[in-house]
Write a structure and sequence with these properties.
Strand content: 25-35%
Strand order of the largest sheet: 7-8-9-3-10-11
Structural class: alpha+beta
Radius of gyration: 22 Å
Largest sheet: 6 strands, mixed
Length: 365
């Protein structure tokens, strides 16, 4: 259980955040400069709030009214940054063991061999950081944090410097930490795909304030477009259930009350909940049930509203049948010629090739 209610003023930057989460991964999501890293620093003890209270598993870390401020080296917090920050003069084994120094012997809950096996880094123990890839360095950094037997793991943009293949490797690793080691994690990112895949609860930060709190499906995308935001990053998250594999064609079906979502490949164990990120630019709208098309994913819903400005595009917000929302970006001309408005039924079409099955995995609700 993590509880945060804190404020801090640093020059022109005025942070004021309040949220809590009982289990799983808490994601701090937002654009650069929204206050994500500043919030992480307050939890870690790297910053001191002007006002507030921070509690971890009923242990008060900060309470400005009561005059409580637990020093960072007593907080039992594991930190993983964008830069792995390994000690260059130590090999992997000794970098890992460095984390052990900060955990009381009685609290060595996670064994060295367990961490090494989970991270898949046994073959790297004798190497120096200079001989590691970016993904390998991040694995070692996570291992060092785990071996400090932390009460919570704080991860600040841990995948930002990695290529797509390495990101997928580390995402799978973080999932195993969440599901097998049951370590509370606060995860900072501005990437929708990462947050949708990992998070139990999402805290959306805008201009150093909490703008929304909820599940990835409820708070990511839909009507959350910001001024100046590129249309190519606008997206939505829908939650369905992995229904089966079409072995003849190599497709995975995700069932949803609004229709089936089809992925090109396998994604997670059948029967589990899964989240899919759909980009607003990858959606085509139809006012009638489509026939004789190559598109396999067709989701039905009702228009909740249409956002327009002086530009050529319109954002069509759709309440899907059952649950969930989509935002589709189309031209204003298309809206006028289709004659659609709030309350009208529409069908959202998404090409299977537009969905990245690699970023879809069974989630923990």
């Amino acid at each position: 259980m993590i509880e945060v209610d804190a404020a801090q003023k640093l020059g022109a930057f005025d942070l004021d955040v309040s949220f809590e989460n009982e289990t799983g991964i808490t994601a701090l999501f937002g654009r650069s400069g929204s206050g994500k890293s500043a919030t992480i620093n307050l939890i870690a003890g790297l910053g001191r709030p002007d006002r507030g209270r921070i509690v971890l598993d009923n242990h008060v870390l900060v309470d400005t009214r009561a005059g409580i401020f637990v020093p960072r080296h007593h907080r039992r917090v594991g930190l993983v940054f964008q830069d792995a920050q390994l000690f260059p003069h130590l090999n992997v084994r000794n970098n890992l063991l460095f984390g052990r120094r900060f955990a009381p012997r009685a609290d060595h809950a996670i064994g060295f061999d367990k961490v090494v096996d989970t991270l898949g880094i046994g073959h790297l123990l004798g190497r120096r950081p200079a001989l590691l890839s970016g993904g390998e360095k991040q694995r070692v950094a996570i291992g060092r944090a785990l071996l400090a037997s932390p009460k919570i793991l704080l991860m600040d943009e841990p995948l930002a410097a990695l290529d797509s293949e390495r990101k997928l490797e580390i995402l799978q690793l973080i999932e195993s930490l969440r599901d097998e080691l049951h370590i509370p994690i606060v995860y900072v990112s501005h990437a929708v795909e990462e947050v949708a895949r990992l998070a139990t609860r999402v805290i959306v930060l805008e201009h150093s304030r909490v703008a929304a709190i909820g599940t990835p499906e409820k708070v990511l995308g839909f009507d959350r477009g910001e001024a100046g935001e590129s249309r190519f990053v606008r997206s939505s998250v829908i939650t369905g259930r992995l229904a089966g594999i079409d072995t003849r064609y190599g497709l995975t079906e995700i069932s949803h009350p609004a229709g089936a979502v089809w992925l090109a490949g396998r994604a997670g164990p059948i029967g589990r909940e899964a989240r899919v990120v759909i980009k607003a630019t990858d959606i085509t709208l139809s006012t009638t049930s489509p026939r004789n098309l190559s598109v396999r994913t067709i989701l039905s819903g009702v228009i909740a509203g249409i956002q327009t400005d002086a530009g050529p595009l319109a954002a069509v917000n759709i309440d899907l049948v059952g649950h969930g929302q989509l935002v589709a970006l189309v031209t204003r001309k298309a809206v006028d010629e289709l004659g659609i408005g709030a309350g009208d039924r529409v069908f959202a079409l998404v090409k299977t090739m537009a969905l990245d099955e690699r970023t879809v995995a069974a989630s923990r609700s």
